[in-house]
Write a structure and sequence with these properties.
The protein is 45% helix and 13% strand. The strands form three sheets. A six-stranded parallel sheet has the order 3-2-1-4-5-6, with helices on both faces. It has a six-stranded parallel sheet with strand order 11-10-9-12-13-14. It has a two-stranded parallel sheet with strand order 7-8. Strand 5, helix 5 and strand 6 form a beta-alpha-beta unit. The structure holds uridine-5'-diphosphate-glucuronic acid. Uridine-5'-diphosphate-glucuronic acid binds next to helix 9.
């Protein structure tokens, strides 16, 4: 199949590269000329483990190419995937202007046989609305909704071994086309859900909102454990053994972040209020996660007292391990709050420092060891593997006080205690 991806950001690139790897002829398009030039020079603008390997292979096989506009296309695509951003407006609503513009441009530049697949995360009703607007402008193209469920840091695995592929369609022609595009996964008997466009759109929002709810819930249980003397890791493990609950997304931490959960859950809440349909659970999850950074700083203050003139080493800036993405990372908010309390901060992250330095003005170190130099405490905010295996003897020499706030619960407290460290973790005393 001949496919075009409009929007060569995270979703467009991962999906485009992987579909070309599966044998489709793919053009990744983006209006950002410098991005397209970098891609043409075989430089990936995003960090995603293993993507580089497939990217190079697809370019080498000539299945993958790049363009800034439709004029550069050497073929008529069977499908155009819209993978542009849907950032939040100040009121929380998803900004659909880029999706709208990209859809209209796709229709204007192709014949009605080309199907337009919306992969950007859009509120339920958007696809139907786009379809209506296309018809009003005289275009006969069909719209499909095909939300993505890729996680940053393990997107290749998620793509190649999908739990499910959700496709919202309005006719058989669209269903058949999507079956050809995803033939590999049909052969593998991966679960497919063919449904209406609106149900597909809502499935994406509901999935992210539900996962965010699990995280906010376990974080509140962690707070309760600290008060009552329970151990949240044990509670989460025991809860997760019930298949009705499941063990995933019950890891306590400094709150959920990234470019998806915070944005999507706000957009869903906005949508609910538009329909005058209060979603109490959703509103509470947003509130709970917003309070999380203050919670975390309060815990640090409780242990260290006045933070003025305290030297604190921050380990971890990205919103989770395995990515350089710091968008809506809890670490950023926590750093700002610690700064307001008068603490001196030095941060280290194996991948996220470049992105963080455009939004933060704190010192950055070249390793966890140099970040910890002369510090009164370390605060771990991202679960990078290298923080799990820190050399306590070296840290003991570098630090002023042997205190670690392990706010991803990744350390072996007993081992750290042997080296004289006091380790505070979430959801346990
Ligand atoms: C999320 C979803 O997991 C994907 O299925 C979805 O495709 C994607 O959003 C999207 O909408 O594009 P992602 O944002 O990459 O993926 O990250 P997650 O792994 O879901 O983590 C989100 C946040 O929750 C991170 O800050 C992470 O540290 C936090 N988290 C996750 C926890 O605090 N505890 C957990 O148990 C799991």
């Amino acid at each position: 199949m001949k496919l075009v991806f409009v929007g060569s950001g995270y979703v467009g690139l991962v999906s485009g590269v992987m579909l070309s790897y599966l044998g489709h002829e793919v053009v990744c398009m983006d209006s950002d000329e410098s991005r397209i030039n970098a891609l043409k020079n075989h430089k990936l603008p995003i960090y995603e483990p293993d993507l580089e390997k497939y990217f190079r292979e697809s370019i080498h096989e000539e299945y993958l190419s790049f363009a800034t506009n439709y004029k550069a296309l050497k073929f008529t695509p069977e499908a155009i995937f819209i993978t542009v951003g849907t950032p939040s407006l100040p009121n929380g609503e998803a900004n659909l202007q880029y999706v709208f513009d990209a859809t209209m441009e796709a229709a204007a530049n192709t014949s009605s046989n080309t199907i337009i697949v919306i992969k950007s995360t859009v509120p339920p009703g958007t696809g139907e609305n786009l379809q209506k607007q296309l018809r009003e402008k005289g275009y006969k193209h069909d719209i499909i909704s095909n939300p993505e469920f890729l996680r940053e840091g393990c997107a290749i695995k998620d793509f190649m071994q999908p739990d499910r592929i959700v496709v919202g369609v309005s006719n058989k022609k669209s269903t058949d086309l999507m079956k050809i595009i995803y033939e590999r996964f049909i052969q593998q008997e991966r679960p497919f859900v063919f449904t209406s466009i609106t149900s597909a759109e809502l499935t994406k929002y509901a999935s992210n909102a539900f996962l965010a709810t699990k995280i906010a819930f376990i974080n509140e249980m962690a707070n309760l454990c600290e008060k009552t003397g329970g151990d949240v890791d044990i509670v989460a493990k025991a809860m997760g053994l019930d298949p009705r609950i499941g063990s995933a997304f019950l890891q306590t931490g400094p709150g959920f972040g990234g470019s998806c959960f915070p944005k999507d859950i706000m957009a869903l809440e906005h949508l609910a209020s538009k329909y005058d349909m209060p979603c109490y659970v959703l509103s509470s999850v947003i509130k709970s996660n917003k309070n999380r950074s203050r919670d975390i700083v309060a815990k640090i203050k409780l242990a260290l007292g006045d933070l003025r003139d305290k030297m604190i080493a921050i380990l971890g800036l990205s919103f989770k391990a395995g990515t350089d993405d710091v968008r809506d990372s809890p670490a950023i908010e926590i750093i700002k709050l610690l700064g307001e309390e008068g603490a001196y901060l030095c941060a280290y992250d194996p991948a996220g420092m470049k992105n963080a330095s455009s939004i933060l003005t704190i010192n950055m170190a070249t390793s966890y060891k140099t970040a910890a130099r002369n510090s009164d405490a370390i605060v771990i905010l991202t679960e990078w593997p290298e923080f799990k295996n820190m050399d306590y003897n070296i840290l003991a020499q570098e630090m002023r006080e042997k205190v670690i706030f392990d706010y991803r619960n990744i350390l072996d407290r007993e081992e750290a205690a042997k080296a004289g460290f006091t380790v505070y973790q979430l959801g346990k005393r």
